[in-house]
Amino acid sequence: MAIAVDSSALFYSLLFPVSDQDTGGMANSLERNVLSKIELAFSSPKVIAEKVLKLPSRLSELDRKLAQEDIDTKDLLGMIEQDPVLSIEVLKLCNSSAFKRSDKEITSLQQAVVQIGLQQLQLFVRTSLMKEMINIKPIYFRRFGAEIWRHSMQVAFLAKAFADEDGDTAFFLGLLHDVGKIAIFKMMIEAFRQAEPGEQPSSVLFKQVMTTKSLSLSALLVKHWQLPAQFEQPLAQLANSLHQPTDPLAIAVWRANIVSECSMLKQVNKLTVEAQGQLLSQVKIDAEQFEVLHQKLLSL
């Protein structure tokens, strides 16, 4: 009988250094510190949402502006252009290989509106603001932030492709699904400062908690941020690791998550052919289809 493959546990090996002292089900002092903070976060998500991982105010402001029927494009672009970093990030997405619509490079936001439309521009603004929120400041922790952002972008890209309808919502849900991991990791940074030198997360227990708790925390954060209610049910289903999701948006993100994890593990030769086949069979994707998707993800 084949042993079930835990793609999330494998994926965490990309985020944390491999330890020779795996403590199995026993949490070390660093992990106990972080786990206590996680439990506190569930009892008071408001603190986490406002102090650890605060949603940029411009996101809701721009969303309200874009939701207006008589939107003034000039005013909208003026709001975006007030933030040079945001403007640059949006233009980068417009010209990226994954989203570029023509050979002609987009060099201004005005040009972007003409070529991609307001709806796609809203998606890129949301994406850029989410990236800003996920940014990890201490240089020695940036690898985690970079890998999680790459994974989130891959999941968003694939979820939009997998969604039968409302691809833009699936895209943003893909970006949101891992905000709990970022919140937990930011709590971990503080724990690292208090830990003994060289102490690292090493137990299987900690990896399991990061997997199950982070998705539940994502759902709590999204609710506290007062984002559209349509995200709540899919995130709640994704947080239930015992059952496959039934909500169409949740299914799209669930499938995208597995494909992205497989792709990133394959890229660093940490996924056997047998494990890859077992994981992809869950989401009904064969080896040939996966290779096409894998090559697309490498270009993101």
Q: Assembly type of the shown chains?
A: single chain
Shape: globular
Terminal residue distance: 37 Å
The structure class reads mainly alpha
The major β-sheet equals:
none
CATH class: Mainly Alpha
Measured as a percent range, the helix fraction is: 55-70%
- CATH homologous superfamily identity: Hypothetical protein af1432
Commentary on this structure:
The protein has 300 residues and is mainly alpha-helical. The chain has one domain (7-298): Hypothetical protein af1432 (Orthogonal Bundle), CATH 1.10.3210. Helix content is 69%, strand content 0%. The protein has 15 helices and no strands. α9 (167-176) packs across α13 (248-267) and α12 (232-239) crosses α13 (248-267). It is globular, with a radius of gyration of 20 Å. The mean pLDDT is 79.
Which SSEs are present, and which pair or pack?
Blueprint: H1 7-15, H2 29-43, H3 45-52, H4 57-67, H5 73-81, H6 84-94, H7 109-134, H8 142-162, H9 167-176, H10 179-194, H11 204-224, H12 232-239, H13 248-267, H14 273-282, H15 287-298
Quick structural summary:
The chain has helices spanning 7-15, 29-43, 45-52, 57-67, 73-81, 84-94, 109-134, 142-162, 167-176, 179-194, 204-224, 232-239, 248-267, 273-282, 287-298.
What distinguishing features does this structure have?
Hypothetical protein af1432, mainly alpha, 15 helices, 300 residues, globular
